Amino acid sequence: MTSQLSQHLPTTHTRRPQGPTLSAHRLPDLPGRVAIPAQSRGAPGTPPPLEWFNDTPGPDAERALLSCLHSPRWARLLAGHRPYPDTASLLAAADEATYDLSPEEIAEALASEPLPSLPEGTYSAAHTALNAAHAAYEARFGHVFVLCLDGVPENEVLDRVLENIRSRLANDPDEEHAVTRDQLRLLARERLNNALRGAGHPRAAAPGT
Q1: Of the candidates 83, 77, 146, which has an alpha carbon nearest to the alpha carbon of residue 110?
Q2: What angle do CA 84, 192, 197 make, to 5 degrees?
Q3: Which domains does the chain have, with CATH numbers?
Q4: Would you say 105 and 76 are in contact if contact means Cβ atoms under 8 Å apart?
Q5: I want to staple 115 with a disulfide (CB 3.0 to 4.6 A). Which of 45, 75, 141, 207 is the partner?
Q6: Alpha-carbon span 138 to 34, nearest angstrom
């Protein structure tokens, strides 16, 4: 009844850029990780994703949630409050659980975030500029830059990422911590929502994939 994570949970699409590629921060390979399965057409007996999530054993639910946000306590909080009557209730609970995370737990989640991919055909000068921007950001704040890119057209990704890094470099650490927490919330929400819809792979991302 379960399926591979890569079939259901959103990731950014990796493309072959023209120029050096960015180093990636990837989720650790956790044995037995489980995806929220999409409802298969013509497959009687396969429950809708929310029903599966409500009924599946706790460890399986938590492993699926870790692919949306790598925070064990966040996953435990959401899995422990099942069943959810609808998707909106689950997404609202996901938001609240993100706000409840400590700075240490936010740092743990950030350490497993992937970096945002550049569109096909991006030249090495763009990679150089993005690498320099990421390096400046990490030197100032001590963690990777994250940004939810859901809904951003592909040809605007590079400009949007660079613009956000440069503007957020002006934040003080407390301001940036609040912005980062909210971007993680948006990323987790988008990944979870798409998993529950059985959708493909939206371009919600963090620092360069």
Answers
A1: 146
A2: 80
A3: 11-197 (1.10.3330.10)
A4: no
A5: 207
A6: 32
Q: What is the DSSP letter of 14?
A: P
Instruction: Sort 95 into a burial class: Cβ within 10 Å, 0-12 / 13-18 / 19+.
Output: middle
Match 């994570």 to its residue by tokens: 5
Q: Which amino acid is at 60?
A: D
Question: Both ends of the chain: CA-CA distance in Å?
Answer: 29
Q: What would the pLDDT profile of 76-107 be if each residue is shown by its tens digit?
A: 999 999 999 999 999 999 999 999 999 999 99
The pTM for the full model equals 0.72
Per-residue pLDDT tens digits for 160-199? 999 999 999 999 999 999 999 999 999 999 999 988 887 5
One-letter amino acid at 25 equals H
Comparing C-alpha atoms, which of 72, 65, 49 is closest to residue 2? 49
Rounded-to-integer distance, Cα 111 and Cα 3, Å: 25
DSSP strands (E only) in the chain: none
DSSP helix/strand/coil, 147: strand
DSSP states of 161-188: HHHHHHHHTTS-HHHHHHHHHHHHHHHH
User: Within 13 Å of residue 200, how many CA atoms lie on the same side as its CB?
Assistant: 5
- Amino acid letter, 103: P
